[in-house]
Write a structure and sequence with these properties.
128 residues; mainly alpha; 4 helices; 0% strand; globular
């Protein structure tokens, strides 16, 4: 029998540590996707238009985000292009809250999304 190795492994390469801004940004994005799905459910007639928009609106936002805005985006773009995509997705979620009749939720979400977007832009500009 051979002795087992009890040494602790070295540091792992799991990627960057989660920051508070990263967690808030992730939560903001999830809330935007939830908002678009809720809008699809409540704003359209059930069953087929509602189901199509419930799935289609968040899916479209995910595809656009993955193509242009994600950290490993498929199509590389400059800071202006990234800002346009982020404003479009967060603006659509804000508009959905206004259309659903919850303007206070829309304003609060817009303010949180704007602050998170500006802080993220500044962090990314500093890193480059």
């Amino acid at each position: 029998m051979t002795p087992t190795d009890t040494a602790h492994p070295g540091p792992s390469n799991r990627g960057p540590a989660a920051t508070t801004l990263g967690v808030v940004r992730f939560a903001t994005g999830l809330f935007a996707l939830f908002t678009l799905a809720l809008w699809g459910y409540l704003a359209w007639l059930f069953p087929w238009p509602a189901i199509a928009f419930m799935i289609g609106a968040p899916l479209f936002a995910i595809v656009v985000w993955a193509l242009f805005r994600a950290p490993q985006a498929i199509i590389a773009t400059d800071a202006v292009g990234k800002a346009i995509v982020e404003i479009a997705v967060m603006g659509a979620a804000t508009a959905a809250w206004f259309q659903l009749g919850y303007p206070i939720v829309g304003v609060v979400f817009a303010l949180v999304a704007a602050v998170v977007g500006v802080l993220t832009f500044r962090r990314e500009a500093r890193a480059n």
